[in-house]
Amino acid sequence: MRRLPLRLLVGAIVFGVLAGCGPGVNPGNLGPHELVVAYYASLQKGDTSAARADLAPSLAALQDSSVDADSRNLQSLNSVVVGEDQPTGTAGTAFQNYAELREMAVSFDALYKQEITSHNGRQTRFVIVGRPTLQSSWRIVSIGTGP
Predict the structure, then answer these.
(1) CA distances from 23 to 38, 137, 140 (A)
(2) Which of 29, 78, 101, 141 could form a disulfide linkage to 109, CB 3.0–4.6 angstroms apart?
(3) How many other C-beta atoms are found inside a 10 Å radius of the C-beta of residue 42?
């Protein structure tokens, strides 16, 4: 049980460090947990182009066309907590061609420009990070409100 608080503390420290970084963070060099931390740190700073670089092309295209995408509709983001990443299976998903997938819960306080599909206040998202081959870079492939 001690591992979870330690993991959350490490996540908070990494989030703080990445939030202070400029656009020099290369998503290709990040592990799954660090990638999600970097994504939300970019959103928190309003750096939507850096956040977009963390997404798989299919998810980036989906967010580009969505009026309620965080990159478009988020006014402010605070108190981000990225949970422990866990392996997740691909059976029955759109990600069957991925070599490896990880899932984690992310909680944050959000203020939206317009309440469309989410309300203002505390939010939880389930983020899936994947890579098509074991040599590929990790990318965020899914962000949803349910596991």
Answers:
(1) 10, 18, 18
(2) 78
(3) 25
pLDDT at 26: 63
- Rg of the chain over all Cα atoms, to the nearest angstrom: 15
Q: What is the DSSP letter of 2?
A: -
Residue 64 CA to residue 143 CA, distance in Å, equals: 14
Tell me if residue 23 falls in helix, strand or coil: coil
Q: Structural domain boundaries of the chain?
A: 3-144
Residues of the chain with pLDDT under 70: 1-27, 91
**137's tokens:** 């870079």
- Taking CA atoms, 80 is separated from 8, 36, 41, 65, in Å, by 11, 11, 8, 25
